[in-house]
Amino acid sequence: MIKVYRTTATIKAEQFDGSNEMIERYDMGFQLAPNGKGGAIIKTLEGDLLVHVGDWIATGVNGEHWPIADDVFKKTYAELPVIPKNVIRQSNPNESHGCQPGNERGTDN
Question: Is the model's pTM score more than 0.70?
Answer without folding.
Answer: no
